[in-house]
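Case study 2.
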Amino acid sequence: MESLPKNLTREADISRSPEDKCGVISRSLFLWMLPLLYKGYRQSLGVDDLYAPPIDAAPVDLEEKLWRDWSNSITNLVILDSSSQPGARYRLLSVTAKALLPRLLAPIIPRLCVVGFMVAQPVFLSLLIRFLSDNSDSRNDGYNSLAAYALIYIGLAVANAWYFHQTFKFITCVRAGLVTLVYDRTMSLSTAAIDKSSAVTIMSADIERITIGLKNIHDLWANVIQVALAAWLLERQTGVAIILPLLVAASCGYGTLKISAAAGGQQANWLKRIEKSADVTSRTLSSTRGIKVCGFANTLIDVIQGLRGEELQAASKLRWWQVGALVMGFFPVMISPVLTLAVFVFVADRASQPLDASRMFVSLSTLTIMSQPLSVLFQSGPMISSMIACFDRIGRFIETQEGLDISQQSSTAADTEGDAKIQNGSFGWSVDSASVLKGINVTLPRGKLTTIIGPVGCGKSTLLKGLLGEVTYANGAIMLPRGSLGFCDQNPWIVNGTVEENITMFSGNDNEHYNTVLEACALSDDLKQLSAGDQSKVGSKGIALSGGQKQRVSLARTLFARRNINLFDDILSGLDSTTESHVFAAIFGPTGLLRRNKSTTILATHSVHFLPYADHIICIGPEGNIVQQGSFTELSAIGGYVSSLGIKNNQNLLGYINPKASNGETENNSKTKTPEPDGEDKSQKPRGVYRYYVKSVGYGMSLLYLVLATIYTFLFTFPYLWAKWWTDANSRDPWQYTGFYMGGYALLQVSCLISLVIFARHAVITITDTGITLNRFSQDLQMVDNELPLAVLNIACSGLILIGRMLLIINTSYWLAFSFPLIILALGVLQSVYMGTSRQLRHLDLETKSPPVFSICRVIGWAGFHSRFGWQGPFKELLYRNLNRSQRPFYLLLVLQRWLSVSLDCLTAGFVILLGAVTITMRDQISPGFAGVALANLIGLSGSMSTVVETWTQMETSMTSIERFRDFECDVPSETRGYSQTAAPPEWPSRGAVEIRNLTATYKDGAVTALKNITMSIKPGEKIGICGRTGSGKTSFTLALFRMIDVQKGSISVDGLDVASMEPNTLRSSLNGIPQEPYFMPGTVRFNADPLGTSSDEDITRALTSVHMDRAVRNKGGLNAEMEDMLFSQGEKQLFCLARSILKRSKVIVLDEATSNIDIDTESLIKKVIDEEFKNFTVITVAHRLSVILNNDRIAVLEAGELVEFDTPEALLNRESRLRKLRDA
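Prediction:
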């Protein structure tokens, strides 16, 4: 706890917010926001232009308090399973409330003031109407009542602003605390324990829902008080008639509780769908190359759209419960007046009490003040329930078991000074299944090189992860020498930054050591080929680098960190023979970098030809046990696995070391431009977005929506005018028309409720499915699904209701109409100023939410290893900087909404004064009924104006997501755009003849020429090998075959059909590609083996048997098991992909570095499978291991994107050729 940074949400160099320095008046009316509003109105805003949250909205010790209280809550319940404890669901909620108790209690006093001012409105409304009805009263009495009425509205404006301001500070604190809790827990989890989709969903969705739910948290008690006081006032007006509204309220409250409980289950189901959809989409976007090579694009589109459909279906079920909550909320508003007036009329008729204007409109106003809080309270039920569920999800995530702490398994200090040891070790990925490794007893010499070898899937990677404490299950004793740990995984971990940033990370600056590492990793010449050298952006997951370059950048990071103990997992697999020899010699060799540093080095590898240079060798057998260990000389002499490899102790193996080992062009998109930040003018709304949205929804649906909104608005406002006619009729002929007006009033209110149900169902459910299926941004989809439909609903209702209220108020006196241009002008100015800044803040809020989520993704990508490198602190500091920037627009956007409300409340207060002055001055000409209508509508006028402007802005900002979808659809070039599409004949390709003529290909915008004037003719059934140094253009050749890079000139034809004329996905699904990085879709083993469902189970089993994967699949559940539960090693994944290609049976097979993560035996198996299963097929094998292709019919050697040799292996090896040099390197 003591090690936690104390600058959670405050940076030392952030200047104080103007809010911290302003006075009471400026703070109450948000005058300190005016400079920012002016700036936002005049120009575009950036994050640096925004004020930081005030000091009391950014407590410096928040994370420490949360962790301390969380730990105490767990300690108190340690005896029993925490998940079974009563109240466990509310644990994190209560911990958060305790840690932020002063901030949680701060809104209570202003909220009580709001209740007081709200309840006072009907009292003074009664005084004004009585004054207008009694001409004997002095005008001064009227003006006094007017002054009191105006003070109520001004006080209500200030109290509301004060209340929400304090609430927003509390929400801002909660958001900061939860983000840091989730991030901190994510950093402590192992790769096996962490659920990527859960962590990302929590950061992007759950915390957002919590902030929404907390806005109404104080309504739970305040609205109860307001309802009680309003009920007391109503009883004074209507007597026993108050009973029925209370019964209605109680019934609706009970219904809301039931609805909220049911909605919680629906929301949990919806969130699971979102998680699954987000996870699949994320994995798809990061593996587009492999997906296209496999020809899975159309299949994956169907899969993702199916998941999206399931998500919307689950959301639709949740929407029904939300509509139910909406109806429960509005039921008292619509029905209570009917029941109250009906009972009152029945009782008053017998008591001869008149229903005059004062009693009518004071009762209606009081019912509004009583019913509206109930409506808010009932509609808040699902949001509060959602908030609690999100707190529970985050709490359960925080309870996730941390990675194993290897320091707790170390023995005495004397042991940790010597060799590393594992005693009776067992390691696995599940406590419920058999251990991958068992009975492990090994010694790892300190300061020496230990290599771990064995067949594919034997557990080499598991042993390394066990040493790191990154497995789910471990048993036995692990003793490591004292010192810092370094680790380099076989799957390179690359962040979206420069090459230098990826290498140095948080290890400081040392130019001499940096250059030494670059030379050792053979990166110096690669950097010369990049447009900006080591300052070049590598893109997301290193997309701008080749596979070998990514591996060496990751290796360089580990070396630059200078750790005492270094673990390497098959990091030579993606390198050509020359680069591999250079890297091994410069790093692991007798005079290598790690030897000079006397590092304890553990290398898991398939490159067994380097075994003579290892000090210690550990051989793992197929059953996960140690079959041999010792030095190379010892193991070669005694026979067994090492001896069977036939490796000679050739001391000249590393004699040829080329310090410029990688001198070719960089791979596929080494100069591909990474996306630039969105440079649009955030203050301007593009044209055509609304038309695009309406077109997506459908013109018929949009027209029906508008008609329903108009009907609902009429039924909502017309009862006020009906009530006025009723009181006028009563004043002329008491009780004569009571039945008629009572029945009409009841009909109007019930019709309004029915229209609300129909309208809400249409708006909230139907319009949610916009027909826009692009999945560009999860945040945009959330906004399109959730915020936009509600914004459209609210703007239609609130806008029309505002117009209706204004028309009813004008009926009081047409002199008021002259004030309307001024009011409209004021609203226009407020909306313009507000929109100019609000829309930009919303943009910035969306943009700055990405870095904290990106920080989580960074941690997930290398979960557990940060602690091994000692980088928890720097990564936290990075999160805090991103969080600080994210808090600025988040907080200011909330404050800006309050500024708008205060402005509109003040405008309403001014209109109250104007209306009161007109009615008092002209009371002889104004009917008390019309005055009652006007004054009763004034109670809701401010809220209507505020809702119109806020929802219009919300709709505008939500339309930003539609704009981004539209721009993505219009601006991102389609692969099919500009090409004439030729339909492929049935069974194409039927022969497998490939003709390449004068092929020159580049990446986007022609920035890099990847292939230059390549010409080759491949006969049907030929086996062709493609080789070359790292960066020579091998992968580019593959991408050109699959139409994934731009062909500038020349052509590629297969069986006489030019591939440039074909639809890309049809081409890729017709060829048979095996990518360098295996990709698996969500679903069963059967589905992944045969996505199109054209093969029987027997055929699938036979294909798996051919690649020796049938046993591994059978032991883990068979064909019906989920693919994600297989936990295959990298080599096993590649074998599974080979089995999948056997089932596809296309006449052209392309293997793109598909043999990189396998041992010699598996390599022999693959060659055997190719010879047997693809005997009469054309096979093009891209490989850096020459042993894989030396038995091919012909071999093509690429260099700097050019074809320099193309002949039979015998012909090339019998002369001084480049192939010979590669073999001898």
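The longest strand covers residues 1009-1018.
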